[in-house]
Write the structure tokens for this entry.
Amino acid sequence: MRNLFAFIARYNHWFVFLALEVTSMVLLFQYNSYQGSVWFSSANEVAGKVYEANSWVETFFSLTQVNKELTQRNLELEQQVSAMQEMLTRAKHDSLDVVQTQKMALSGFKLYPARVVSNSLDRNDNFITIDKGWAHGIKKDMGVACGTGVVGVVYLVSRNYSVVIPLLNSHSNVSCMIKDRGYFGYLHWNGGDPGIAYVDDVPRHARFKLGLDVVTSGYSSIFPPGVLVGKILHVFNSPNGLSYRLQVRLSTDFGKLRDVCVIDNAGMEERLEMMRAVQDSLKVKRE
């Protein structure tokens, strides 16, 4: 304590000088508007810099907590994305299966892509016009399909365009069978709903259930076997009671039909000609 008093007594003039300086500064800035405004602005700028530095320091030391929160949020988002992907996969499962089935059925065949330029749905005999003709390799009686199933058969061909008889035509007659069952019949459209057609002449001893796929049988030179036609909705007895009649939901949405493929049936014709030759030779031997 004695040393403190000795220090103050030794340097008392400095303490008096500092006290007078502080007092003069207070009087200067308090009673002079210009000097006061300069002091206020400077003080605010300094205070802002101090606050900015303080905020940066606090932010730096709080990064650990922020990283934890971000990590947790990322995990939650990843779980949500996984759940949405699973739902999307389930929703698209049927359409993906259809596309895969189409690729398998049409593998080995030459396909000519074409685009629908005109289409009708409201008549008993509807027709489709596509933008490809004999100049592009299209011929009469070639089958036409899209990514979801059978469309129809080429009826007339010009140089750059072709007319197709779709399934939605009273003259359409496509040989079909129940997938994985082997029972076959012939697909007809009776007008009305463009999404519904009927398969006639399915034998009475056939065993199947609703919801099964109906595909092309491959018993003609137009379509290869296995091209999707639709799904069984309902089963009726034929008028004579000797067979079944299947109500089928067509897999092709003709109202949204834009892009199609024409199937080159040269390979099918060759195989059928060979089968006919074998059958004819067997008949000759029997005779």
